[in-house]
Amino acid sequence: MNTFSRLLLLIISLAVLESCSSTTATSITGSWKDPEAKNYTNYFVAVLHKKLPVRSTLEKDISRRLKNEGVKVTESMSIFPHTEDVETAEQKKAAVEKIQSLGNDAIITITVVKHTDEKRYVQGTSSYTPTNMGYGTGYRPATGGAPVPGSYGAFGTYYVSGSSLYQSEGYYETDKTYFVESNIYDAKTSKLIWSAQSQTFNPGDLATASGDFSLVMVDAMKKAGLIR
Q1: Which residues have C-beta within 8 Å of that of residue 91, sequence separation ≥ 6?
Q2: What does 37-86 look like in DSSP terms, one character per residue?
Q3: CA 227, CA 220: separation in Å to the nearest integer?
Q4: Virtual CA dihedral for 26, 113, 82, 76, nearest 10 degrees?
Q5: Is the separation of the CB atoms in 124 and 165 below 8 Å?
Q6: What phi-psi label fits residue 134: left (phi over 0), alpha (psi between -120 and 50 degrees) or beta?
Q7: Tens of pLDDT along 144-192?
Q8: pTM above 0.85, yes or no
Q9: Which of 10, 23, 193, 219 shows its CA 20 to 30 Å from the CA of 108?
């Protein structure tokens, strides 16, 4: 393999490693369930976030996961138009009454409590490849025959040519962590029946974070016996 081929292989390898270095992972860090909680078949999903893309994407992904479990779902986006204005006490009361009048069994609220950005230094990597330059005893081909001219079998040639060492520079990478609180209320009594805290680490984008979060959350709801 010549110098150019080795360098090309190194670049490809580094690109693959870099693409795999940041992975999205959501985990439930804590949960609570009312001992008297039951399972439900008709949910109202409300993502309490002022940014429309966040609210819309999360509600759609959670609804899709629940529907795959055979559960009926109503998204808040289909009932209340999006606004970034702060609701008054009267508006909130009217919204609660509207939700309770829809006939859902339970209400899910999703709130992004906070998110953190943390910078970390990623150490540069190096790739070592023995050289095969000049003439010496070299390597013997797999099929036998005369040795391939190279430097590893001859001290003199090796000493002159040295070895090939490719070094990539270190860089800074920002780790993002989103902390989310998920609550489920009984629609008839307004009583809190389940609550969970979760964190999503290093989401590449909103779609990835939402898909991973909704999968973990609905799975947790199933394990808690909240989905019939």
Answers
A1: none
A2: ---BSEEEEEE--SSHHHHHHHHHHHHHHHHHTT-EEEEGGGTS----SP
A3: 10
A4: 60
A5: no
A6: left
A7: 555 555 544 555 444 444 444 445 666 666 778 888 889 999 988 889 9
A8: no
A9: 23
